[in-house]
Amino acid sequence: MAIKKRGLVLGATTVASVAVVVTGAGIHLSQGQAFFKESPKELIDEVWQLIDHEYVDETFNEQDWQAVRIDYLNREYGSSEDAYEAIREMLEGLGDVYTRFMDPQEFRNMQIDTSGELTGVGIQITQDEDSEEIVVVSPIEQTPAYEAGVLSGDIIRAIDGQTTEGMDLNEAVSLIRGPVNSEVTLTLQRDDETLNVTVNRARIEIHPVRYSYETGNEGGIGYIRLTQFSANAAVEMREAIQELEDRDVTGYVLDLRSNPGGLLYSSIDIAQMWLREGTIVSTVNRQGIVDENAAGDRALTDKPLVVLVDGGSASASEILSGALQDNDRAILVGTKTFGKGLVQSVRGLADGSGVAVTIAKYLTPDGRDINELGIEPDVIVELSEEDRELLAEDREKIGTMEDPQYATAIEVLADLIRGERESAQLGPDQQKAAL
What we know:
Elements: E1 9-10, E2 18-23, H1 29-38, H2 40-54, H3 65-73, H4 80-92, E3 100-102, H5 104-112, E4 117-120, E5 123-127, E6 134-139, H6 144-148, E7 155-159, E8 162-163, H7 169-176, E9 183-190, E10 193-200, E11 202-205, E12 209-216, E13 219-226, H8 233-246, E14 251-255, E15 262-263, H9 264-274, E16 279-285, E17 290-294, E18 305-309, H10 316-326, E19 331-334, E20 342-348, E21 354-363, E22 379-380, H11 385-393, H12 404-425, H13 428-434
Parallel strand pairs: 2-20, 13-14, 14-18, 18-19, 19-22
Antiparallel strand pairs: 1-2, 1-15, 3-21, 4-11, 5-6, 6-7, 7-8, 7-9, 9-10, 12-13, 16-17, 16-21, 20-21
């Protein structure tokens, strides 16, 4: 399956844990608007054709898809909003919240999400497939939402007093976004507690990588926290690894907790920095065609690696952690990941709107289907409610020995370093005996 590298997205600031291929409509906006005004049915049929050719479920949710086309093309549409509503209704029949229509403003919002800069509060949200609740996947570090204490797993019950019950995800995104320096109040449900959090909107430049050198019992440790797979993530990751290698670290902790995803090829590029060989990820469409991405002997380091994951680690995070786990390159510590592994093709339409179509799913190197299942860590470390509150109150404690998951990661890494050191001290015959 040929997929253009520049447009593949896994997760985003508005829609978490979904892969996206963005392609242009090939028509100037003003031409498209005139085209749409003359024949709104053409737009409806264009969407139908995309679903017909690309949708991952060839049964179309057990629907007669040809009959659906006839039904919607036999209707009359008095305005663009009528046609938009008809398209949304048609797509709802697929029973897939990730296959969706975006009006021109929503489509522009989607294109902003992975640019490395955005205007808003700094959260990634998704819509639960069963309950249709709007759920926070994670706040982006050092953003207004992060500083205001919004947490992964919070359910957004209202936005500026407007209930989110029955609300479409894109509508929620539009309400949360707004002018710089304005405020938005989110009503959140956190376990049994309901709280109102007022957040100042800001222009947010995302630097997804932060790193530090820590001194441990087994030598210097490189700690790298990756918060999002944005356009600049691979560049910043390379700089972090190279600088830590220059300091001669003995091992690494890579922190992917609360990382909701981003650009798929950012995750592949980063996987290449840790893996010398082996499959990274494969995608399967409705014909069963597999497109594999493999490591190309471009690793920056072979030193021992522990990866931290949790329920906020989604999509591109799951691709990276799954690749490292299946290739025996890293030990995973934490809790089970989010569990989203769908690939979407996003197409620009004639009037500047767009449609996202689920076209495939992705699998780990061992063929594991991540969607809804997630990735189980090798070492499970649950955080107590007290731990969560401590880390939420003082984010600077994340990635320190007061962070129980990080502390366990350091213990696991020390064992890996000692084991590698002992193995290196054995002679060839002793190594064979040890095997």
